[in-house]
Amino acid sequence: MGTKFSDYLAESKAADTAQDRALREAFAASIVLGLQFRDARVAQGMTQKDLSVRSGVPQADISRIERGAGNPTESTLHRMAFVLDQRLALVAQPTPNVTIALSAGR
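and the corresponding structure tokens:
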């Protein structure tokens, strides 16, 4: 193993199984979705607490979703999107994966 982090990363990815890659892709999708919610919230000048009060979603859950650490239900995502005047959409990808994305308007 090399002493550079980039060497370690390359070796680690080379040793990945299909299951490892799928898990990494799912984690990356969670982070992207969380960042979209955070960006929409911040653009409207809302705090997590403001979004919590208006959507009925606990602030701790909003924090987890924004960090990509949550496992929210579709209903929870729709409630947050509604308050943020966003539309929740499932976007088909060329791979078997599906991406969930926010877009402006309901």
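(Above: one complete record from the training split.) Residues 55 and 76 are 8 Å apart (CA to CA).
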